[in-house]
Amino acid sequence: MSExxxxxxxxxxxxxxxxxxxxxxxxxxxxxxxxxxxTRAVQMAAGSLLLVGLFYASQLAPLQTVNWMVRNMLLYxxxxxIVIFQSDIxxxxxxxxxAPFFRYFNRxxxxxxxxxxxxxxxxxxSSQKVGAIIAVEREIGLRNYIESGIPLDATLTYDLIVTxxxxxxxxxxxxxxxxxxxxxxxxxxxPLTVNPRVSRELGTRHRAAIGLTEENDAVAIVVSxxxxxxxxxxxxxxxxxxxxxxxxxxxxxxxxxxxxxGGRASSAYDA
Length: 271
Known about the structure:
Elements: H1 2-8, H2 16-36, H3 41-60, H4 64-84, H5 86-97, H6 100-128, E1 132-136, H7 143-146, E2 150-155, H8 158-164, E3 175-179, E4 182-188, H9 204-215, E5 219-223, E6 230-234, E7 237-239, H10 244-261
Parallel strand pairs: 1-3
Antiparallel strand pairs: 1-5, 2-4, 3-4, 5-6, 6-7
Helix pairs in contact: 3-4, 6-8, 6-10
């Protein structure tokens, strides 16, 4: 016992690689604990810690029978955990696969899917002449506007967007705000433009889209309730009566090209 305690204090100096090693293990343990919080895996983890504690206690005591039993049980416990928690293991691997490091390589594909969902949603709303306004966050955050609405934090799909803006929906008034590939909030309030040069034919949604893009670099998609036209606002200007293909091309320019260039993409809106 005394030799074991003495050996603990006879460790080599801690270097930068040791600190990095400890930091990585700490992050992995922290993410693992967040992942299993509130699930049945918590009880399994507590039981595993108990077995590990018994194993080391049996070595220090020594308790030969307990040590033999624990050593034989650990192998079967590992197989039992794989079988019982196979769904949780898949979820954990998927969670780590969504880490920022891996997202970098899948960013363009995710942007393409996001743009396609937005185009399909705008097209469907246009065909039904259902008014809508969708703001897409870029470099400057839209947190202030998100907090003014109803938080959703839902996966972006055209079904969700179309459902939100249906006249009978309690969330149809206001704007939907998209962050990356998720719907952050709905029924958000946006500032109206006070630019006197804006056409009087444009309604409140179009003025809100222009007002938002005057204050930051967001992109705003607008669907007219009267004519069913699709508009796109950027840098305080708006183009109306866009076709789905035109909307898709411009969204690709403002979202994908901007990320690839590491800055704001230039366009006719900058004139």
